[in-house]
Write a structure and sequence with these properties.
The chain is α/β, with parallel strands linked by helices. Helix content is 24%, strand content 26%.
Length: 285
């Protein structure tokens, strides 16, 4: 089944967008792995109409409001994103298609401090197998991560690389990885290379030669997903215009994954604007 709008994220921006698209009679689907960073806020007292409320209570109230309108909310992890005639969202549980997508997944917070990663970005260190995997045909590549997102990146690479090594950096794999993936659970001390990545040095002193290393830590962030279909990003933010449109027709972004202050009031406003533009886009199609 193809819905009108898929909204990625169930925080303030995502839920607000869903309330508008649903009331406009758009078939709407919300997908989110968890309830976001707002749940860690102890008390909120600077949002209109609320004297004091915990972050988790506000999030749950918003979700309850969406469920009251019978908007489906799936608690699933998004691992892939592509576009052909329609947008296709791949999760750890299934595939879903839509005419438009609103990204409201918040700001990525998963990072890792390994010497050489920042220095070699764009020179063998990549964040998108779909975007860059072609350049590593018949070469040895690595994937840094241990979850479903890392498994999806490995799946993309194993069809074209001569060998794919999963570096879990001391963690146990918690997903099913494609046959042929080499699992390396040791910790990484640094990346080796100047003009391009040459190898990964492990804490035990071993050096593992690589042509490329794909970073897939935790869950796919908003920018990870946006890059897969050619959306413009700056740092860890998705680039949009004042109407929350990206450079990809039918793809919109709202909330902390876009530029601006990270406040609930801004996220809600973004969700409203993105929803109204998505509604106009779907109706025009």
């Amino acid at each position: 089944m193809i819905v009108d709008v898929i909204i990625l994220g169930k925080g303030p921006a995502g839920i607000q967008a869903a309330l508008y698209t649903k009331r406009a009679n758009m078939k709407t689907l919300i997908i989110g792995k968890d309830n976001g960073a707002l749940t860690k806020a102890g008390k909120i007292g600077n949002y209109y109409g609320i004297k004091s409320m915990s972050g988790i209570d506000l999030v749950e109230q918003g979700i309850s409001q969406a469920l009251a309108l019978e908007i489906p909310i799936l608690t699933e992890e998004v691992t892939g994103f592509s576009m052909n005639e329609h947008f296709k969202v791949l999760t750890n549980c299934g595939e879903y298609e839509a005419k438009a997508v609103i990204m409201a997944t918040g700001s990525p917070r998963t990072s890792i401090k390994i010497p050489g990663i920042k220095e070699l970005e764009g020179r063998g260190v990549s964040y998108c197998a779909v975007c860059d995997g072609f350049f590593y045909r018949r070469k040895v590549v690595g994937v840094l991560g241990n979850s479903a997102y890392a498994a999806q990146e490995a799946e993309e690479l194993i069809a074209m690389a001569s060998s794919v090594i999963l570096f879990t950096n001391g963690k146990e794999p918690d997903s099913v990885f494609p046959d042929g993936t080499i699992i390396e659970t040791g910790k990484i001390s640094r990346l080796i290379g100047s003009d391009a990545i040459e190898a990964v040095e492990m804490e035990d002193g071993r050096k593992i030669d690589l042509a490329g290393l794909f970073i897939a830590l935790g869950s796919a962030s908003s920018t990870d997903l946006a890059l897969k279909i050619g959306a413009l990003t700056e740092g860890n933010k998705i680039v949009t215009d004042e109407k929350k449109r990206t450079n990809v027709p039918g793809l919109f972004a709202a909330g902390d994954c876009t530029e601006g202050i990270m406040q609930i009031s801004k996220a809600v406003a973004d969700g409203c604007i993105a929803a109204m533009e998505a509604i106009a886009y779907v109706r025009a199609k």
